[in-house]
Amino acid sequence: MLLAVDIRKTFQSAERRFTLEVAFEAASQRVVLFGPSGAGKSLTLQAIAGLLRPDEGAITLHGNALFDSARGIDLKPQARKIAYLFQDYALFPHLNVRQNIGFGLQHGWLNPRARITHPQIDYWLDALELTSVAANHPAQLSGGQKQRVALARALVAQPRLLLLDEPFSALDSALRQRMRRELSELQTRLDIPMVLITHDPDDVAAFGDQVVQVSDGRVRENHPFAGYARSES
Amino acid sequence: MQQAWIPLLLSLKVAGWATALNLVFGVAAAFGLSRWRSGARDVIDSLLMLPLVMPPTVLGYYLLVLLGRRGVIGGWLDRFDIQLVFTWQGAVIASTVVAFPLVLKSARAAFEAVDPQLERAARTLGVSETAVFFRVTLPLAARGILAGGLLAFARALGEFGATLMIAGNLPGRTQTLSVAVYSAVQAGDDSTANFLVLVTSVTCVVILLLAGRLVPQHTLLKSS
Q: Which residues of chain B lie closer than 8 angstroms to A82, CB-CB?
């Protein structure tokens, strides 16, 4: 079993109460969590990454428990070796492209130097066509470049799983198609399992080897992609 | 005129120490307050902001009560033969307390403006909590902290009331610039007063000009 998630968490505020109750098992390398905004997809992804602590349940990756309330296991995000591609990319604005990509290679109290050289960084700069902007800061990059930097930064430490939070929503449609193709090729080449969340049926068509439908904090359907999403769009 | 340099240098020394202390304690308190989720937070915040609204002489009196030989802290320090009253170190403490809220307020606003998503991103990249603070949170808040530090320096440089209460007015030892101006005017020594006021004004302009250059430009850029 690649990834098994079975978690519950209740959010209580003065106005509303929201219960997240998600259970699915990833049988394929490409899993899409599909559902409307506010359904709890991002929360699920955060729980897998260790950024959100569920009230109870278990999360298992490659047979290792990342979280298990019954056994008192809750690995810190730092120890999970899971890459997270944030919706707005979350690039560090005070660091250049080189430093952003190399961020996870150094674990000390200092950021990498502006001219850091490391075979991994150079490999990713080259692979994602970022060499010409290596010294730029995130504010000087285009949307597609930002996404590539975020991908490189996430993949440089060779994670065990790649989580993507609405990765194409900030891009225009032409770029979106291109980045889908790039990501798809990259995933095949690296052979890294990924979980992608989206509310765009086109993403489901491109990546949904297995589709988990989430709505109102709950899993509705969980099955291999059979083509229904494409016919909707 | 020669004598005017002595209070100026003393003022710079006192204000420099007060700013350095505030950059450590004010920033630490600001970070704590910005991350702490508790009902007591507002009460603590109000207490820490008190020096901003209280008259400096009142603060000075409190400090005298605490740090004087018969005070709780002063009595304890006296056993180690450390005296703070009528010393420049006492002036540093007075200036630190008076300027503390300025650093606290700016630094807290700066910490709260840091996108938590960036800290989360750093965590998923395997970087420890301490390293996240020094590599992401602190650099992104640096501009606000620096602005607060400069305000604190300017405030400490002009400190009068609390300093006079605790450190007194000993020429060459605890007589800072603003106290020296007061003494000169009281003594009817207009030429010294004029000179001191001029020196103070020029110093302040230089500080402001330096401030504009010190602040790194790239921290202006926001993540998009």
A: 124
